[in-house]
Design goal:
Strand content: 15-25%
Mean pLDDT: 83
Distance between the termini: 86 Å
Largest sheet: 3 strands, antiparallel
Number of strands: 3
Structural class: alpha+beta
Shape: rod-shaped
Radius of gyration: 30 Å
Low-confidence stretches: none
Helix content: 40-55%
Amino acid sequence: MAGGRTDMTLKANVHTNRRERGQSMVEFALLLPIFLVVMFIMADFGVGISRWVIITNATREGARLGAVGGSTTDIAAKVADTSNDLLDAADVNVYYLDKDSNGDVGDRGDSVVVESDYEYGLITPLKAFLGLAWDSINFYSCTDMRLELPVSGASNPDAELGCE
């Protein structure tokens, strides 16, 4: 046949396509776990950073409320509300520091410190893929602001040093 294919050429192409399909499947099987791990890391990193920003902003909002005279229960409630239900009021620690060392905690110029802890559990099965010993990360946020208005009944039961 002039210009046409012979039967021998057609059979050779069929065998070559099968071999290439098998090679593609092997390559896919080798690269799939790596691809999944990268995707899981990106997903957990993105959600984790988002949660960290929310927690940090919530403690900052609580400290701002405390700086203008809010009570400790109001501050803890503000942090819980601002955190998009990631934190409870019980997860928030509020105390005051006597910055001017006059013995009166809670007067103008002293500090209000708002701390919060949030445990972020991984949302992907990354632990199973990588054999990690942990499946959560603890996000700690601390904000220290100067009091603009005096606060009555301010206390510092733990004599903390503030945010470090």
